[in-house]
Design brief:
There is one protein chain. The longest helix has 19 residues. The chain has a single domain, classed as HIT family, subunit A, CATH 3.30.428.10. The termini are far apart. It is α+β, with helices and mostly antiparallel strands and 122 residues long. The relative contact order is 0.20. It is built from three helices and five strands, in the order αβββααββ. The structure holds guanosine-5'-monophosphate. The site of guanosine-5'-monophosphate has 13 residues, from β2.
């Protein structure tokens, strides 16, 4: 196995090889709490298919799953932070991407307060 074909940390979570605080799962996507939260609510929504490294690849290759990521993000934001949230996809190292298995960050203030401008990417 080459280094590039090593499973990402998110594939290890999907396969239950490492633990995570999973808040949602269906056949296509999984969502769990970020291990290093940058906001009172910080969830990651991750397609189970590891083929797409970033949101541009996902949009081009499987837009239905991108729509499902957005749908699940809204459902979770409604549950965890009153339906108002920030949805972030980092693409590329210089933009802060560290895990090259496409994922959406769902950032929210919880049920009171507001996000600061620095939530993620700072
Ligand atoms: P990126 O920087 O690639 O946009 O986002 C990757 C995110 O994954 C980071 O916010 C980081 O805290 C989170 N992360 C990295 N490793 C783990 C892990 O093992 N478990 C969980 N729950 N989150 C992780």
């Amino acid at each position: 196995m080459t280094e590039e074909s090593q499973p990402t940390v998110f594939s290890l979570i999907i396969d239950r090889k490492i633990p995570a605080d999973i808040v949602y799962e269906n056949d296509a996507v999984i969502a769990f709490k970020d291990i290093n939260p940058k906001a009172p609510v910080h969830l990651l929504v991750v397609p189970k298919n590891p083929a797409f490294r970033n949101v541009s690849e996902l949009a081009a290759g499987d837009p239905t799953i991108l729509a499902e990521v957005v749908r699940v993000a809204k459902e979770l934001a409604t549950k965890f932070c009153g339906g108002e949230y920030r949805l972030v996809f980092n693409e590329g190292e210089s933009a802060g991407q560290t895990v090259f298995h496409v994922h959406a960050h769902v950032l929210g203030s919880g049920l009171d307060g507001a996000l600061t401008e620095g939530s993620l990417g700072d």
